[in-house]
Design goal:
The structure is a single chain. The chain has 8 helices and 10 strands. By secondary structure, it is of the alpha/beta class. It has 2 domains: 174 residues, 3-Layer(aba) Sandwich (Rossmann fold), CATH 3.40.50.300; 64 residues. The strands form 2 sheets. Strands 6-7-8-3-9-10 form a 6-stranded mixed beta sheet, sandwiched between helices. A 4-stranded antiparallel beta sheet has the order 2-1-4-5, covered by helices on one side. A hairpin with a 2-residue loop joins strand 9 and strand 10. 39% of the residues are buried.
């Protein structure tokens, strides 16, 4: 079993701790005793290929799937699945919120739920670049703009930790850079992100620390320099390190 308990830049304010999460489907073990922690303001990447189990892991964390064993702790308190939404907000891949509504209506609804000011809403809309499609219905949004809408909703929420599945899918290079900047700016305000990413180059650009994930198992944990030292590849990319460890 491998854990990911190194802090970020000396900050030991542990927000979330995951202890030995395990999930079976029949005789198949989908998630195998996964354990890690994440600190305030950290961007943690769960990286691995499609089919590695990243989405299953996020759904276990969010309480959407029942784990066979293991626990999730937030700020030292164990959170059963039914209470995970108090601390975690999950942005799945591929969903469309209220498809027949205009994008502006969706944003306004969530802003009202979470009592966000007009100034806060305007800042979030601007940061994610949602202005051009506010008057479009959700079902008519491109994949990239739908993802911007989901991110705007996530940023409106008050939860400590955002779980995001494939946050850069559907973006080109420039758009990805812009969204990375949004994530990093929010992390600087002590918002914590757990990102499931299969594009290793994107993960390397945005994440502080990595969980290398394959076959439902943790294959490596750490910052890039730590993983380079572990594999003996002193200037290796995340892709090279992942291949060496899996």
């Amino acid at each position: 079993m491998m854990t990911a308990d190194a802090d970020r830049g000396g900050n030991s304010a542990q927000v979330l701790r995951v202890a030995n999460l395990t999930k079976h489907y029949g005789r198949e073990q989908a998630i195998a005793r996964v354990a890690f922690s994440v600190t305030a303001g950290e961007v943690l990447g769960i990286v691995g290929p499609n089919g590695a189990g990243k989405t299953t892991l996020l759904e276990l964390l969010a309480g959407l799937l029942a784990a066979d064993s293991g626990s999730v702790f937030c700020l030292g308190e164990e959170l059963p699945a039914r209470r995970r939404k108090e601390a975690l907000f999950y942005l799945p891949d591929g969903i469309r919120l209220y498809q027949d509504r205009f994008a502006t209506e969706v944003v306004t609804f969530f802003a009202g739920v979470y009592r966000r000011s007009d100034a806060e809403v305007a800042a979030i809309i601007s940061s994610v670049g949602l202005e051009p499609v506010l008057q479009k219905r959700v079902h008519a949004l491109s994949k990239g703009y739908n993802r911007r809408l989901l991110l705007a909703v996530g940023l409106l929420t008050p939860q400590h930790v955002l779980l995001m599945d494939e946050p850069f899918d559907g973006f080109d290079l420039r758009q990805t850079r812009n969204i990375i900047e949004v994530v990093r700016n929010e992390a600087a305000k002590k918002r914590t992100f757990i990102l499931a990413i299969h594009q290793l180059a994107d993960a390397e650009r945005v994440c502080d620390r990595f969980i290398l994930f394959a076959g439902g198992q943790v294959r490596g944990v750490g910052k890039l320099d730590e993983l380079r030292a572990q594999t003996g590849i002193p200037v290796g990319s995340l892709e090279e390190i992942f291949l060496a460890l899996t």
